[in-house]
Design a protein that fits this description.
Layout (H helix, E strand, L loop, with lengths): L1 H21 L7 E8 L9 E3 L4 E10 L5 E10 L5 E5 L4 E3 L5 E9 L5 E7 L4 E7 L9 E3 L5 E6 L9 H4 L3 E2 L2 E5 L18 E5 L2 H13 L1 H12 L3 E5 L4 H4 L13 E3 L6 E5 H8 L11 E5 L2 E3 L4 E5 L6 E8 L2 E6 L14 H9 L4 E2 L4 H4 L8 H9 L9 H26 L6 H24 L3 E15 L4 E16 L4 E7 L4 E3 L5 E11 L7 H4 L10 E4 L4 E7 L4 E12 L4 E8 L7 E6 L5 E8 L2 E8 L4 E4 L6 H7 L8 H5 L5 H22 L1 H4 L24 E7 L3 E4 L13 E5 L4 E14 L5
Parallel strand pairs: 2-10, 5-29, 11-13, 11-14, 14-15, 15-22, 24-40
Antiparallel strand pairs: 1-3, 3-7, 4-5, 4-6, 4-8, 8-9, 12-23, 16-19, 17-18, 20-21, 21-22, 24-25, 25-31, 25-32, 26-30, 26-39, 27-28, 28-31, 29-30, 32-33, 33-36, 34-35, 34-37, 37-40, 38-40
Helix pairs in contact: 6-7, 9-15, 10-11
Length: 770
């Protein structure tokens, strides 16, 4: 009998093998020929990434045969929790006998995990695969940047940015890394592709500079990506000497309106002794007295009204370096060429870039792991995320938990023994009562936890709006540019995969009657300075399904959450309006760099609570700005550092509780206290470079755009405040008409509520004496 069974099993195995051999296999007709992660240096081949920031991935696919192939390129990498994130590269893959090679772009969040690339056809069958960096044969192509090190992109071969400073000077790290870009084909056309880059230097001199200008003129989408990147916190440096006329014309250079200086028509560049450049560079030079003066061709620009002069040429009224803010970033104009002429062999060329980019030399050669400190719990960003993750759930005292555990042990042990063995003398029944007690206690514990945590989905949303205002001569101050950032904390009552979406490309009517649109939004996992994954890395989860990420659309699908667990996400986007809304009427002037005089009339229909005006190194409390409310400033208040040190606060009105109509009376006070604590942490992050006083203290380097201390140097005042806390049912997300819609979709449609905290930073230029 056993022999017959063996023969039957062998026959079935043979049939299965024949069936598998008879199945037509998918033969790979394509191959991945190149994967570029980040921005690869053209000379060293090294590219960098910053943990938690978006990273561009350039994939080149080639066909082995002359045939038509349609499919997609899928790029995957694990997040901080080890869950795989999958991104579809754009555009779709379409190879023909005439076009047998195609390049696509994908955008992923940088982490410790390996990056995997798959080519699939329209039926999602795998055609080719590639693992980075294993399949490259060079495992050190991709390096994680230390949090405090600046990433610089060099275009046009500017001299002095050769990236060899740290190796040439033993034991010294200049505080920045340089990636020299060979051509525009290596640059993405989305602003979030430059998310981990702090500075981009474009040298326009010589033939190579002219080629870059021609390439930018042919690719307006590339210039648009740079514009949006600057608006989100980037630093764009344009060096214009011999091609100053071309750089100043919008028809030939799409970013001409970003220049902080106006070229004087008809004035050709001429050789000038740049005394002011030598003076500012000497502070960063190793031997200041030995630094020679720079004599180079200089283009004459006139400073625009709201720009600042950082260095002069031969005389103080002749600007050599101009700068002004744009959105959250800044644009610098260098009025001489840095890739040709005398600057290329000037001794101070490296020190000049360190001064211009405001990098800080670090002791020793910094690596990613050596830069992580043990003070991560004190990071303001850590405190911000921890505060947002505080949900109002009833806490059970430890004594109650210990008492229940003791009762369970006594019930399942001694009581069960004495009941059936000593008293009734039927010990066999213990086989029934013991598992029954365990099951009943487990069910009771489950329902108790369910009653405490609730059965609804809870979302905490902290929205940060950065709004740049422009005042005309008549007084009205209108909004010119805006951007938003958002931390989302999702708490799930059950095991489930969620899909979230931040509005993108959709218009919404805000509370002030204006039509606002959210553009180019990204949504992903958030950076946590106290996360152990920063230091130890993470392992890929073999159980959870992959999360589908859609950069540019602000959407995530299949985000897994355990029962009563939380997931913190982070989103960023750009704002645009059909017509600039009127927020306030400003008649503020600044007689000097630490004094503000005048009045401010608030015209927005929504109140701004607990406001403060910051200018120079001073703080003026404004109280609550209600619609049509006028504030007059006649005296100075405390210094910015003193306010932070002594926790100086002003008494704000009772509008905070009355305006929060969506919050019930029982939780109104706690919600306002939480909103106040979040606002204080964001104020600290906004001016952290000015608040750093101790030798061992340093600004938080994880989200550089949060620090807007430089605004106070550029004749701009910063008004900070927050809106009343609001609670919105999840079923009414799309009907929300607040300052701007953020989270607009959460699937599956479970009952729950969204608690929104909104913090606003307004940037207002003031008229000051030169």
């Amino acid at each position: 009998m056993s022999g017959q069974w063996q023969k039957a099993i062998c026959a079935w195995l043979m049939l299965l093998g024949a069936g598998s051999l008879g199945t037509p296999a998918v033969i790979a007709a394509v191959r991945v020929v190149n994967v570029q992660v980040g921005f690869q240096d053209e000379k060293t081949g090294v590219s960098y990434g910053r943990y938690g920031h978006w990273l561009p991935v350039r994939v080149t696919v080639a066909a082995d045969r002359a045939e038509s192939i349609a499919g997609r390129v899928v790029v995957s990498i694990s997040d901080a929790d080890g869950i795989v994130q999958e991104v579809m590269a754009e555009p779709a893959l379409h190879l023909t006998p005439e076009v047998r090679e195609q390049t696509v772009w994908a955008y992923v969040q940088c982490s410790h995990g390996k990056l995997r690339v798959r080519v699939v056809d329209q039926a999602k069958r795998a055609l080719a695969s590639f693992v980075y960096p294993d399949d490259t044969g060079q495992p050190r192509l991709w390096q994680l940047l230390p949090p405090s090190v600046v990433q610089v992109l060099a275009l046009g071969e500017p001299a002095g940015l050769d990236g060899a400073t740290a190796e040439q000077e033993a034991g010294r790290d200049p505080g920045y890394r340089v990636s020299r870009i060979a051509g525009p084909q290596h640059l993405p056309e989305k602003w979030f592709g430059y998310d981990y880059v702090q500075a981009l230097v474009l040298a326009t001199g010589g033939e190579i500079g002219q080629k870059w200008l021609e390439a930018i003129q042919r690719r307006p989408s590339l210039a648009q990506a740079w514009r949006q990147w600057v608006q989100q916190g980037g630093h764009l440096v344009i060096c214009a000497g011999m091609h100053a006329e071309r750089v100043s014309q919008m028809a030939q250079f799409p970013l001409a309106d970003l220049l902080p200086g106006e070229w004087l028509a008809g004035r050709q560049p001429y050789a000038e002794l740049l005394i002011g450049v030598r003076e500012v560079t000497a502070a960063r030079y190793r031997e200041p007295t030995a630094l020679s003066a720079l004599r180079a061709p200089w283009a004459e620009f006139r400073k625009r009204p709201t720009a600042s002069q950082r260095a002069f040429a031969a005389e103080p009224f002749k600007p050599a370096v101009l700068v002004w803010p744009y959105g959250l970033g800044q644009v610098s104009l260098v009025a001489f060429d840095t890739n040709v002429g005398a600057f290329t062999h000037w001794d101070g060329r490296t020190a000049f870039w360190e001064w211009l980019l405001e990098t800080k030399p670090l002791p020793g050669r910094q690596t990613y792991r050596t830069a992580l400190t043990s003070q991560r719990e004190r990071e303001p960003l850590t405190q911000l995320v921890h505060e947002l993750e505080q949900f109002q759930t009833e806490e059970i005292p430890f004594a109650s938990v210990a008492g229940l555990m003791l009762a369970y042990v006594l019930l399942a042990g001694p009581f069960d023994y004495f009941l059936w063995v000593r008293w009734l003398r039927r010990p066999v029944l213990a086989w029934l009562t013991f598992p029954l007690v365990v099951v009943l206690v487990t069910i009771a514990a489950w329902y108790s936890a369910w009653a405490i945590h609730g059965s609804e989905v809870t979302v905490h949303e902290l929205v940060l709006y950065d709004l740049e205002l422009t005042a005309d001569s008549r007084g009205p101050t209108r909004l010119t540019r805006g951007s938003g950032s958002c931390w989302l904390v999702l708490k799930s009552p059950r095991l489930m995969g969620y899909s979230l979406e931040v509005a993108e490309g959709q218009a919404a009517t805000t509370a002030d009657g204006q039509t606002c649109a959210v553009l180019e939004s990204v949504l992903g996992w958030t950076i946590r300075p106290d996360d152990d994954a920063l230091q130890r890395g993470q392992q890929e989860s073999l159980v959870q399904g992959a999360v589908q990420v859609f950069p540019g659309r602000g959407r995530l699908e299949n985000v897994p959450l355990q029962a009563w667990s939380m997931k913190t996400l982070f989103a960023r986007w750009l704002l645009t309006w059909e017509s600039p809304p009127l927020l306030c009427e400003s008649r503020l002037t600044a007689p000097d760099l630490n004094t503000v005089r005048g009045e401010l009339v608030w015209r927005a229909p929504w109140p701004l609570l607990d406001c403060e005006l910051n200018f120079g190194t001073r703080v003026w409390p404004l109280g609550d700005l209600l619609p049509h409310h006028k504030v007059t400033i006649q005296r100075n208040d405390v210094g910015l550092l003193e306010r932070q040190r002594f926790s100086h606060r002003h008494t704000h009105h009772s509008i905070a509780a009355s305006a929060s109509s969506a919050v019930d009376n029982g939780s109104s006070s706690e919600a306002q206290n939480q909103s106040y604590r979040l606002a204080e942490t964001l104020r600290q992050l906004t001016f952290q470079r000015l608040l750093v006083a101790g030798r061992r203290e340093a600004p938080s380097p994880y989200l550089p755009f949060l620090d807007q201390s430089g605004r106070l140097r550029y004749n701009q005042a910063v008004i900070t405040g927050y809106l009343p806390v609001s609670e919105i049912p999840l079923s009414q997300l799309r009907q929300d008409a607040s300052l701007s819609r953020t989270l607009v979709q959460l699937e599956p449609a479970l009952p729950g509520k969204l608690k929104r905290f909104v913090f606003v930073r307004l940037y207002l230029p003031l008229s000051t004496p030169d």
